[in-house]
Design a protein that fits this description.
Radius of gyration of chain A: 29 Å
Shape of chain A: globular
Largest interface: A-B, 63 and 63 residues
Oligomer: homodimer
Number of strands of chain A: 31
Strand content of chain A: 25-35%
CATH architecture of the largest domain in chain A: 2-Layer Sandwich
Number of helices of chain A: 19
Distance between the termini of chain A: 53 Å
Chain lengths: 616, 616
Amino acid sequence: MPETDEKLAAMRHSLAHIMAAAVQRLKPEAKFGVGPAVENGFYYDIDLGETKLSEEDFGKIEAEMRKIISEDQPFERLEKPVDEAIAWARESGQPYKEELLNDLKRSGTTVAKDLNAEEMGTIAGGDAAVDSVSFYKNGDFTDLCRGAHVESTGKVGAFKLLRVSGAYWRGNEKNPQMQRLYGAGFFSEDELKRHLEMLEEAKKRDHRRLGQELDLFVFSDMVGAGLPLFTPRGTILRDQLLGFSEELQRAAGFQKVAIPHITKQVLYEKSGHWDKFGDELFLVKSQETSDQFVLKPMNCPHHAQIYAARPRSYRELPIRYMESTIQYRDEKKGELNGLSRVRAISIDDAHVFCALEQIEAEFTSIMNMIKDMYGVLGMKFSARLSFRDDSDGYLGDPTSWEKAQKTIEDVAKKLDIDYFVEEGEAAFYGPKIDIMVTDALGREWQCATEQLDFVQPERFGLTYVDAEGTEKQPVMIHKALLGSFERFLAVYIEHTAGRFPTWLAPEQIRVITVNQEDPTVECANKLVEQARQLGLRIEIDNSNESVGKKIRAAEVAKVPYSVVIGEKEITSGEVMPRVRSDIKVQGNGQPVGIEQFLKTVANEAKSRVHKTSLHG
Amino acid sequence: MPETDEKLAAMRHSLAHIMAAAVQRLKPEAKFGVGPAVENGFYYDIDLGETKLSEEDFGKIEAEMRKIISEDQPFERLEKPVDEAIAWARESGQPYKEELLNDLKRSGTTVAKDLNAEEMGTIAGGDAAVDSVSFYKNGDFTDLCRGAHVESTGKVGAFKLLRVSGAYWRGNEKNPQMQRLYGAGFFSEDELKRHLEMLEEAKKRDHRRLGQELDLFVFSDMVGAGLPLFTPRGTILRDQLLGFSEELQRAAGFQKVAIPHITKQVLYEKSGHWDKFGDELFLVKSQETSDQFVLKPMNCPHHAQIYAARPRSYRELPIRYMESTIQYRDEKKGELNGLSRVRAISIDDAHVFCALEQIEAEFTSIMNMIKDMYGVLGMKFSARLSFRDDSDGYLGDPTSWEKAQKTIEDVAKKLDIDYFVEEGEAAFYGPKIDIMVTDALGREWQCATEQLDFVQPERFGLTYVDAEGTEKQPVMIHKALLGSFERFLAVYIEHTAGRFPTWLAPEQIRVITVNQEDPTVECANKLVEQARQLGLRIEIDNSNESVGKKIRAAEVAKVPYSVVIGEKEITSGEVMPRVRSDIKVQGNGQPVGIEQFLKTVANEAKSRVHKTSLHG
């Protein structure tokens, strides 16, 4: 961790303690779970019995926090034997801390697999059972904690409480529900202010709200949580985005295949995914046979079966199978969130089967597709190169790993990609590149990925015959350009605030009639017909509302272009298009012939640009 | 049943008895199951213990059958009290007959739900427990049987034993496996001969064999039975066929939606499908939550949820949702057969939500799509109009039914469709049209369907507000043009013997090089590049084989066009295309400029015709 990041984390973690101390002052009965520093701030999980915190309580808690800060209490570290610590927890009425301490005593932090990395950081270190644990104390407040902290409560920068939400103790539905109190924390008031403004903007752009307003997707209680149903408009976005991905892949020699969504369990036992996915797998029961089936959580083993269906020659390689298909993962209900986290995940997935010496060309080709895709989408990205470290647990020949990692880094350099290497972050089966995309609010999202796989070809016994007639093992490359389409769409709706570029817009042009009679309606219908011939998505608003109201409705629907049809347009054959403000158009505000206008928009959509000239 | 059909069935059923009698003479230990008349012939399920019948035994059995026929034994009907019949079965060592008789005694034929209609017909009638049962006797052979039979064994026309296969007693894997002995039976030797020739041709065209030879789809033991994996070539057929269906629907105002493959069980409890599908449903278990999920066996309830997600106005109707998506049905393993019967079924499904007065226009529009589709596919069809009868069990208002049935028949008349009405064949939820397509071998297949549904809108409480502001209930129309894509592909592979028309052919042109050096290879590559620019699917055979062998390989792969590139072609810029024999081409056998050739093929593909002119 760079030094500033470390300082920021210590400050945020100290704010978590200060918040807990403040809550304890106000509600002495509070029982505490864990309270880590997180991105942009901190939280603490608190059990207050029947008492529910709400935003109305934030002022009081913040005031108490400010008192503690002005008292400038030093953070003191103390070490206690684990049994003494357990006795302390029992006496102080902190059952959650007691449970954690018992776990630590028994088997160290490894037992607490259900806590995430941030949460782990708050309690203690070590993989083995521990003898003693560390505490931090400020004023009256003592907490089981590994640190680090700032020197004293006076040194914590700017903060603000943001929200409170339910969280099961250790993330498990069967455990008691606690209240997770979130705050933002930054070095300066300025940074905090910018962050709060960003949050305000993000709220306006919330994809769940825009998804409903723009009629893109719906959820149904009867279908189930995390299972979106895409409306006609949402399906256009889906088809256009996945279609663009497919187009890029097809140009690079990828071929479409089609697989079912289920498989017998044995396929995953063979591939090794059975153990890896565990509880995340949806199990499928046949009532007719005793076969145990599973909903596919990924597509590679199915694709490997197509490869394996007949002998392969080096002449056929690389073989590249692509398919945009839904995979299913049984995410925890509490973690489901609009389209950001779903159980039915559409991936623009593909798998390359190739010789080791072909990976440079393949990685280059895939990286070029990623550049093309995010170039068109207008989003910056950086690449995280996840390589192995010296630890055990990586499968496959170390020389191949080394060669592959060098190749991957060479490709990133050659293509002038903004990248960084993280050692020890590789998958056990091979090194990978994850693409981190930055949205308009400055948030980073992991989207595209390219992963090398030495293991699956081995496990499935995949082979090809080389030029000398020798049987060889291919390597596999897993790749996705958008990654999860659902998550990408969530990101992209918020990135664009729903103002989709013309090629993606579910409705590209809206025709507004000034009255509901011929020749107006006739002219409008003719325009619609012409536009559809050009492949444009056009709708007509022939309702009995005022023109002003209809124009406003087109703006709310964020339609790129709208044209009003009245007497002048009928006579002149020219329209005065209203252009959505984010679209750069030359010659805007001047009348243009209907055919010329439609052709221009059709070309804009076809070329997927976000700027155009209405006058040729 | 028309009189000839009745006579044919009696004759075939008599042949089943004669075959069983012959087997009993040869193998007195034989235990018999059921032996019905079926399409084109008859079968009998026989348990011979460890003895396995094979085609080598057919001659002997046929000779014995001929003896029985020449003995011209009369078929005598006798009635026995059921207890006496049970005693007879026990004494004759016929445990399967004994089991059936016990069932009949207990609760009539309704208990034997696991037997199909033909099988039922062989044993007895009635829905309630029976007191007496009928037998038929010819010579030494007596069989529990409802009839009818021909007068005597001499009156059975022409027959031939065809094959023997395994069949579980009552279709249940847990029961003993018997041997199902099949024969063909016709009035005349001529008809039998024609049928055997058809079978011979069907064998050559078997889609399972051609599917492998043409590399269209594969199965994997690890994925599971009935779950095809489509290779790149098969996926082209899939995309082209489903894409054509989508194109026709889009032109008729259908909009694509996208739904997940699972749902909570409660959706089907509400829709009524939970009871209807029973064992055919794949149950999906979440390990994270207690929700019970199901793999969707149809799409309508999901689509109804999209409709129901917001209030609807009459102005929006008809709302037409289409989606080509896989649905899952847990078919019995023994009934799975190549692509003809699978567990993962891709349907070009759609649902129209409309007012009752709109169904004429919608049925007309859908019927026109069906005409267009099968016109292009070059297959004749007739329509079965399945209407209600006077019995109970049909839901919805009788006046609406009557009106709807009249409308449907009017549409069929108006569009000059070859149709017939079957009363009593409607679904409980509404009348329907099933399209019976005839293949090149004269076999009939049910493919497209249009079904009216008065019930689901009611169950889901779907509404719209009409012009007067009143809340009304829409009707639903279910439709599919191809039906199950997998089954259609099986039919179409056999219909065309794998000689797909150019628009569908996975590989449309093959380029054959006379040597592996420039300028030949350069010229071939340039041609390939030009062809791909035109959207053509073209492959190059640059292998080190003789030109003759390469031409032969292109023929085996049933590629519509192949061109040889050698010195003459390079110099002249003209090629002499080899055209697959079923494609009607004007100007075949004359050289043609490369560009002209490629444009012609591209136009042929684009227009989906099956004939073309190479010389403009």
